[in-house]
Amino acid sequence: NAGVTQTPKFRVLKTGQSMTLLCAQDMNHEYMYWYRQDPGMGLRLIHYSVGEGTTAKGEVPDGYNVSRLKKQNFLLGLESAAPSQTSVYFCASSPSSYEQYFGPGTRLTVT
Amino acid sequence: KNQVEQSPQSLIILEGKNCTLQCNYTVSPFSNLRWYKQDTGRGPVSLTIMTFSENTKSNGRYTATLDADTKQSSLHITASQLSDSASYICVVSAGSNYQLIWGAGTKLIIKP
């Protein structure tokens, strides 16, 4: 099992550009999450999904959209990137509302 | 306001020594408390999860304690190894996985 994978690993965007981050899990987990991690701060939840076809807002959803068309994939979109979205993005999945398994992260820089 | 505070921010110890990391929280309602290890450039990996009724839990050389009355937890690392160099993050759940309050972490450096 690959666990949780994220694509891409690194990306540099110009302000105003758009992009999609892909998260895939092969553990058949119902729950998936997108977090951002900034220096000196705890992880913050952007959006999450409790099952295929469902999504919900987390703590910091503004400027991001998500989709969960297939159970194994959770996409995070930035429609118009801003420098404040420079961060490391982590995807996670869990079989229930308990232990989470994290991907390796995507380092995004917006100039 | 729900908060998780960790101390110290960073810690340097010699290989083979023990250390204890602290976590204080003000989270309500309380569901469980977790400790994660995050290596540089990697995602967090779960070490322990403790519910209200558990006051000690071990995972190899890692032992976590929980005092729900004082709202404090600690992570004790015994006989440290170079591979223990990482950030250790305390996380408190207020119910479900989308109600997690994350601490900023303690950066631990083990020197040979």
Helix and strand layout, with pairings?
The complex is a heterodimer of chains A (111) and B (112).
Chain A: E1 4-7, E2 10-13, E3 19-25, E4 31-37, E5 44-51, E6 54-57, E7 64-67, E8 73-78, E9 87-94, E10 101-102, E11 106-110
Parallel strand pairs in A: 2-11
Antiparallel strand pairs in A: 1-3, 3-8, 4-5, 4-9, 5-6, 7-8, 9-10, 9-11
Chain B: E1 3-7, E2 10-14, E3 19-26, E4 32-38, E5 45-51, E6 56-59, E7 62-67, E8 72-77, E9 86-93, E10 100-102, E11 106-111
Parallel strand pairs in B: 2-11
Antiparallel strand pairs in B: 1-3, 3-8, 4-5, 4-9, 6-7, 7-8, 9-10, 9-11
Quick rundown:
The complex is a heterodimer of chains A (111) and B (112). Chain A is mainly β and 111 residues long.
Structure write-up:
The complex is a heterodimer of chains A (111) and B (112). Chain A has 111 residues and is an all-beta fold. Chain A has strands at 4-7, 10-13, 19-25, 31-37, 44-51, 54-57, 64-67, 73-78, 87-94, 101-102, 106-110. With 112 residues, chain B is mainly beta. Chain B contains no helices and 11 strands. Chain B has strands at residues 3-7, 10-14, 19-26, 32-38, 45-51, 56-59, 62-67, 72-77, 86-93, 100-102, 106-111. In chain B, a hairpin with a 6-residue loop joins strand 9 and strand 10 (100-102). Chain B is globular, with a radius of gyration of 13 Å. Classes of the chains: A mainly beta (111), B mainly beta (112). The interface between A and B is medium-sized, with 24 and 20 residues.
